[in-house]
Amino acid sequence: MTLSISLTVNGVRTDVAIDDPRVTLLDLLRERLHLTGTKKGCDRGQCGACTVLVDGRRINSCLALAVSHDGAEVLTIEGLASGDRLHPVQAAFIDNDGFQCGFCTPGQIMSAIGLIAEAETGDDPERIREAMSGNLCRCGAHVGIIEAVLDARNRLAEDERRTA
Amino acid sequence: MNQFEYLRPASVAEAVAAASEPGAAFLAAGTNLLDLMKLGALRPSRLVDVTRLPELSNVEQLDGGGFRIGALVRNADLAREPAFAAAFPSVAEALLSGASAQLRNAASVGGNLMQHTRCAYFQDPASACNRRDPGTGCDALTGENRSHAVLGWSNACIATHPSDFSVPLVALDAVVEIAGPDGRREMALEDLYPLPDAHRAPESGLRPGEMVVSLRLPPEAASFRAHARYLKLRERTSFAFALVSAAAALRIEDGRILQARLALGAVAARPWRARAAEALLFGAVPSAENFGRAADAALADARPSGDNGFKIELARRVIKRVLLLAADGTPERMPALPASAFNLENGAVAHV
To answer: What strand order describes the sheet that includes B46-49?
Structure first.
């Protein structure tokens, strides 16, 4: 049986025919929609490399069944920059050496965007560390990552003050 | 992962009917189920997707002060609900000490309560496991078992229940409301988790086709709000399951304990209510000495199921510490590291 679902991915509405209900949101993004920025690390919800925003919330796309997310709005790393202009969180990761090999980076950045939207950490590094614990970096770039998240949070808060 | 039939019912009645067939499983967020299906530990022939069912996503304050929480409320949303977190701070702390932000955003209340043990032999389809495949034996008994049960176990099964959320809930006499083929019923949350007997280790107290539709906290559960804590020891400070955890709730008046509630996590197949310890604390002065006595009473029947005797002493210390924390009072703000032993003075962090 083929099921059809509709997703809005990075602002574009897409109808996808699903011929096998086992496909996860992660596999759908990578294999069907060819958005390979979202990474498959452990495929078990332990590493965070597959983090995307679904309806504005960060989740592990490897543990989400695609058919169950009919109608969802999905934001991936590919949907952040406007042309050559990076999203402030992307820019902060570069400025603060928030990565080495880069494999976990899309998940780290999507998780950081989710964290900033949740607005629960303030500028407390311990709260940010705790809230980023679902994203592992095997290169050990966590120090730079936490600095990047702090920096990005401050930049976004500054942008908000300016436009308010 | 095995092939399965996917159904998305429009009502609880349809969901229950669809799930009454042998081999069917309910799907909410799937954060535990899909993981176990990928491992081959669970092989349901039909998934009944309950995520679109109406009326199961509300947090409702009941007349008299109790709360009803729909089974589909997400873990993170419940922890962030201000009225709920104020009334049941140890429940919010336990929720925020579990898993990661991503998993808490997805995982549902019902899914958390119904999650499976993290016993490695349950998860490995090549291992013998009476809980997964009744009658096959238990490879954990002679295997890697340092995190396994020290209370309420049998030679049929030494697995522990992994939920943090359910530990303060059992301490606070939470009730689950259930829909099934024979209509609605309710049971104490504690009874949702049967202990293993000599031969069998049933996964839950639910009958085929039944689903948890909501969780209810009685009005008196909120009377502990000023002195309610959850403490969780684990091998890393965040994003790990408990080795031992405990939830304590006290009512203190004029320097004496009027009522105490205590439950342990990760020591048995159910969140372990320590009623003998609660009785000892009635009328007692909140002191380290009295809390030590309560801890001894709570662990009086404990015995190692393998290489895990250290958990008994660990549990004593966790109980004493969580009772001291509860006596100190609920912190004004959620600690930076929820339920961590590395928080000092109600929320400040001893960075190690």
So the answer is: B5-7, B46-49, B24-27
For the stretch B267-301, pLDDT in tens is: 999 999 999 999 999 999 999 999 999 999 999 99
Structural domain span for residue B262: 225-349
How many domains does one find in chain B? 1
A99 and A64 within one domain: no
Q: Quick check: B347 pLDDT over 80?
A: no
CATH number of A147's domain: 1.10.150.120
Average pLDDT over residues A88-105: 98
Nearest Cβ partner for A45 among B1, B8, B35: B35
Domain count, chain A: 2
Beta bridge partners of B25: B47
Q: Residue A161: its pLDDT value, please? A: 86
Q: How far apart are CA B172 and CA B253, in angstroms?
A: 19
Q: How far is CA B128 from CA A90, B117, B154, in A?
A: 48, 15, 15
Instruction: Name which of B33, B74, B100, B340 to mutate to probe chain A: the one with the most chain A Cβ atoms within 10 A of its Cβ.
Output: B100
The answer to whether B25 and B188 have CB atoms below 8 angstroms apart is: no
Residue B200: pLDDT above 70?
Answer: yes
CB B58 within 8 A of CB B70: yes
Coil vs helix vs strand at A28: helix
Tokens in use for A156?
């976004």
- Contact yes or no for B102 and A58 at CB 8 A: yes
**Residue in A23, A51, A63 to test binding to B, most B beta-carbons within 10 Å:** A63
Query: A112 and A66 share a domain?
Result: no
Q: What is the pLDDT of residues A39-58, one digit of tens each?
A: 999 999 999 999 999 999 99
Nearest to B238 among A21, A65, A130 (CB): A130
Average pLDDT, chain A: 96
Q: Please give the DSSP secondary-structure letter assigned to residue B167.
A: H
